[in-house]
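Contributing: when you submit paired examples, paste them exactly as shown. First protein:
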Amino acid sequence: MILPKERDPRFITLRRGGSLTDSTHHSLAEWAATCAEHVLYLFEQANPDDKRPRQAIELTRAWINGEIPMKQAHQAAFAANAAAKGLPDSARFAALAAGQAVAVAHVAAHELGAAAYAIKAVRASVDEQEKEETGRRECQWQRDQLSDTIRELVLDDQSQRNHLCWSVFNC
């Protein structure tokens, strides 16, 4: 479970009574897509013929650009998650990262899910003694991708929800 029981109003759109603007929502989705895309190769190495996770990332960006409705983006999350079934952990977590990224269109707080699963993916791709350092490097890479408009929000969210996200944001 990566989502808190009580939703943070900073991740609820203005239309639904929160404080999240469309621009910030789109920035969160772009960052989540970037995090998922960074580890997508782990899925594609294991299952090169399955395009569902890549399509989920593409549909995230299509939603950001207003090319598809939220509902279509949200449906892609289910497809990416289904692609994860039965695969080794690194590939499975990479597909789940893509599913979380596209789910940001529906619930902005999924942005941390994309990042957390991406970290889990790279950690699962290396030997036990390399897991912590590899995870820290991925976490730092992700933070380096944050735009100024969402940096403070995401870093605070990581601090508040790190315990729900397998404590992967200790970088």
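Second protein:
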Amino acid sequence: MSEAQTVHLSYDDGARAVELAREAVEAYVLQGQREQPGSMRDAFYARTGAFVRITSTRGRGRLRGCSGAYRGTDQLGHAIVDAAITAASDDSCGSEVEPPELESLNISVCVVGNHVLTNDPAADLELGTHGIAVDADGQHAWMYPTLPVENDWNEEQFLTHACRKAGVAPLAWQDDDTMITLFDGQVFRERPGGGSVEQL
């Protein structure tokens, strides 16, 4: 078993994390520049993983980009900026976020509190709490903790979708040589319609 540095953000820290991700996306999309975190709150100096997820508020709210890592060696502030830029680039979902889209995006940030390698993923997985990282046959993929709740998936469906995303057999999560890491953390996102940030 392996665990990350435990990090817990206050609501204000979480709101700042989302604001920082938004600033990073806008600086990248509008000026092609990397936003600097600047003077950071104490929590943002912790070295832990973070994910940034960008969805469109138009139509069915399709995914526009998602990036990050559950293990992190960078300070949290820099990890959020880097994940936001990659999520907004064409390295994520195949098409770069364009300036006209900025007003119709919803940005969320998942700050990883800890992660654990599991031998019994279906039993250990807590829906709505854990995200999943799959490593098998040289392939890797991860999925955000809120996805099974949003899509009404059970544990096996969540694990199967994660394996498909990694490009391995859907039931590879049952194989002994497949590494399944469960990570949990705090998820903060912009409220639909703009305005404040909510913690999920």
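If you have annotations for the second protein, write them as plain sentences, like these:
Helices lie at 11-31, 76-88, 121-124, 147-151, 155-166.
The two ends are 27 Å apart (CA to CA).
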